[in-house]
Amino acid sequence: MAGLFKKRALAYLADYFVVTAIMWIIAQLLYFVVLPYSAFFIYEYLIILAPIVGMIYFVVLEAKMGTTVGKHLLFLKVVSIDNVTYYQDVSYKQAIIRNISKIYWLPIIIDLIIGRLIGSSNERILGRLSRTEVVRE
Questions:
Q1: Could you tell me the pTM of the whole model?
Q2: Residue 46: phi, psi to the nearest 5?
Q3: Residue 113 backbone dihedrals phi, psi, to 5 degrees
Q4: 3-class secondary-structure state, position 104
Q5: Residue 88 DSSP SS3
Q6: C-alpha dihedral over 69, 71, 72, 74, to 10 degrees?
Q7: d(C-alpha 125, C-alpha 111), whole Å
Q8: What is the b/e burial string over 80-96, where b = at least 16 CB atoms within 10 angstroms of the residue's CB?
Q9: DSSP run (H or E) holding 128
């Protein structure tokens, strides 16, 4: 299953670039508002806005489509293993729980380490708590 872990890591890296591109677009749009008023202090708020944009990206795409851009490129999908029926769509609640650690780098590393120590080498602890799983499409 090391292959699945590598695919997930590459998918996360690709998603990181997508979120970075979205943040770059937001910064460029803010530039036109900031420049006439010399209000460059507004760029200090990007560090707060970045995790919010990242959470919205991951939660909406996983809840609506079951995948993100990075996961789609690597033929991965997030499915719910809630109740008896396996592989159903992920709810917004499940998507929020599984992605809360993606706010910054440190929480996701801790989430991954705890997940590996407690059980599977592929699942993070929040993946188990949310009753979701990443599978190959």
A1: 0.85
A2: -65, -30
A3: -65, -45
A4: coil
A5: strand
A6: 130
A7: 6
A8: bbeeeeeeeebbeebbb
A9: helix 125-129
Q: How many residues does the chain have?
A: 137
How far apart CA 26 and CA 128 sit, in angstroms, is: 33
Mention every residue, 6+ apart, whose C-beta is less than 8 A from residue 37. Answer: none
* Side chain identity, residue 57: Y
Longest dimension (CA), the chain: 58
Kind plus residue range of the DSSP H or E element containing 97: helix 92-99
End-to-end CA distance of the chain: 15
Which residues partner with 78 through β-bridges?
Answer: 134
What values do phi and psi take at 131, rounded to 5?
60, 45
Query: What are the tokens at 127?
Result: 């993946």
What pLDDT sits at residue 67? 95
pLDDT for the residue 27: 85
pLDDT > 90 fraction of the chain, expressed in percent and rounded: 41
Instruction: Give the count of alpha carbons within 13 A of 92, CB side only.
Output: 3
